[in-house]
Amino acid sequence: MKSIGVRLAAWYALASMVTMVCLFLVCRYFLEQYLVHGLDLLLQDEFAQIESHLGPDLTALTPAQFRDRLRGTAAFESVLFYCEIHQHGRGILFRSPNLHGASLPDVPGKHYYNGWLPNMADELRLAEFIRGPTDITIATSKAQVKKVMDGYARIFAGLMTATLFISAGIGYFLSRIALRPVRLIQETANHISSDNMAERIPVPAVDDEISNLARLLNRMFDRLESSFNQVRRFTAEASHELKTPLSLVRLQAEKLLVEGGLSAAQEESVQVQLEEISRLNQIIEELLFLSRAEARAITLATEARDPLPFLQGFAQDARVLAEHRGMRFREEIGGRGLVAFDPKWIRQVLLNLLANALNASPPGGQITLVSERTPELWRVAVEDEGPGVPPEQRERIFERFVRLERPEAAPHDKGSGLGLAISRSIIGLHRGRIRAESGRDGRGLRVVFEIPAPLMPAGVGEKPEDDRDAPADPGGHLGKGHQLHPV
């Protein structure tokens, strides 16, 4: 059982059951003793009647006189009682007819005890009364006691069943109340992320273990927020400070090429330097973008529009890029309705996903763009036919600088490892989410992003716009800085 609440309910039910069993055993013992004591009183009363019939002098009576004086009493009460009179030196003087010649059991040293008669199913309760040399033993059946105890056990079994369900329900209800502060801590902690470090766990007014835990976690989050802010400031400041010297290095390298006088090998080295400088500039731009996105310093130009024209324009460009790499591109666009999004940044996300898919797919492979509109959201997926990503790695590929390399990857395929992190930030700014999953039939990788969008008729509030005029690759170059597919 993974739930603490369920475990607490089970423990509460178990404790209730153990308590009930203990109470049952104790009550059963005292009830049985009480009923047996009642039988002992009946036996004493029966002895008093027998004694009154026999008179005070028992040693002078003959066996015939015993039979004559007890005939009426023994015959009347033979249904309930058994009687046997023994006298030292004279043997058995009287036996009730219902004994059929059998002798009542005797336990030396005890006056009240239990016993059995041969060929008799019910246990007997016996009492021995001594009057001088005469022993009068009277017995009665314990069948009624057994019947009462059996009924008590059946009633208890029913109560135990009811107690089990009731205590489990009460235990689960109490555990929900007791664990409510823990659930509040869990919900708040789930909301706290690198993009939302300011939220804190409410501290209960009661000074207990839960409130101490909440204070401890809040102090930990304070330290984490301070560390994150320091990292963000360092990233932004370092990226900004690197732009100027890189620009100067680039200008000097270009100046060498323009002035000439370099050998072929030297010109090739300078070209490589320029390419690496361009790659560094792009990484710096991406890091600055991530810093601004995490600081919520980017304002989206969102507007409710039908995504169909936007996707059709992107599909035309994507098809050309796929054919240039010797691959095929196919789109499946379904559903109509308005969605509030910024086409420039969503195009950037699609270009990143397309670049990854092109780099991962084999020659002649197919890239598929799927768009569907539901009443709650707009879902877009880009699927390739590459080797895919293991399930345990699919969340990591959205982290910064994470690249799962392919041995056969070409040098120009290596990206910065920031494209999917940027895509996640852009989708997060749209209040959506992005994830990676296995492609259809278990082949390739399928990257899906979803943006919440209440269902509205297409055309309402839409402004005519050709989304193909949006920048093709804002902030970078397709296939270099945004090659992030883990292959």
Describe this structure in words.
The chain is built from 9 helices and 12 strands. The protein starts with a helix and ends in a 35-residue tail after the last strand. Helix 5 packs antiparallel against helix 6, helix 6 runs parallel beside helix 9 and helix 7 runs parallel beside helix 8. It is of the alpha+beta class. The chain is rod-shaped, with a radius of gyration of 47 Å. The longest helix has 51 residues. The C terminus is likely disordered. Strand 11 and strand 12 form a beta hairpin. 25% of the residues are buried. The strands form 3 sheets. A 5-stranded antiparallel β-sheet has the order 2-1-5-4-3.
Summary, kept brief:
The protein is α+β, with helices and mostly antiparallel strands and 487 residues long.
Please write out the topology.
Layout: H1 4-54, H2 63-77, E1 81-87, E2 91-95, E3 112-115, E4 124-131, E5 134-141, H3 143-178, H4 180-191, H5 209-259, H6 264-294, E6 303-305, H7 307-324, E7 328-333, E8 339-341, H8 343-360, E9 366-373, E10 377-383, H9 419-429, E11 433-438, E12 445-452
Parallel strand pairs: 7-9
Antiparallel strand pairs: 1-2, 1-5, 3-4, 4-5, 6-8, 9-10, 10-12, 11-12
